[in-house]
Design goal:
With 159 residues, this protein is mainly alpha-helical. The chain is built from six helices and no strands.
């Protein structure tokens, strides 16, 4: 069997990719319904409901359990990988997004005050807004939503 044929018949990889795609498509639809605008960045961007991180690793983990058993070393590896990934999505990545919000606020205030030459609160020069990406982590609810979607995908992938 050729490498490409084996690669495309990998059910575990298929489940993980389908978990990621499902959550990204859901984010796009939720954003469309809430804002009435098509935001194509939601098809690949981080952050938001449901968590693609959680969906991907949970689909991977559940499909590992189904195809290799819960007593297999690859399942144990997948479980630990899922825990670390979801913890990171809720913790470090979310906190980095909160830091970016504060940095954006304070750096923009500094830029505006530097452009305000006469102290009247109105900048005399054009100010370029600083925009660090703020939407990179997940709330616990977004992680839970992604985990549930990933579990469902992992269960539904055909044998």
């Amino acid at each position: 069997m050729s490498f490409l044929h084996e690669f495309f018949e990998n059910r575990v990889l298929f489940a993980a990719v389908l978990g990621w795609f499902s959550s990204q498509a859901t984010k796009f639809i939720i954003t469309l319904l809430l804002t009435r605008k098509m935001n194509f960045e939601r098809l690949w961007g981080a952050g938001g409901m449901p968590s693609a991180h959680s969906s991907t690793v949970c689909a991977l983990t559940v499909s590992m359990a189904r195809f290799y058993g819960v007593n297999s070393p690859v399942f144990a590896l997948a479980v630990m990988f899922a825990f670390v990934t979801m913890y990171d999505a809720m913790g470090v990545r979310r906190e980095a997004g909160e830091h970016a919000k504060l940095l954006n606020k304070y750096l923009n205030e500094i830029e505006i005050s530097k452009a305000d030459k006469d102290g009247d609160g109105i900048p005399e020069e054009k100010v370029d807004e600083i925009e660090l990406k703020e939407f990179i982590g997940h709330t616990p609810l977004e992680v839970l939503g992604g985990a549930l979607m990933g579990i469902l995908v992992g269960i539904l992938v055909p044998e």
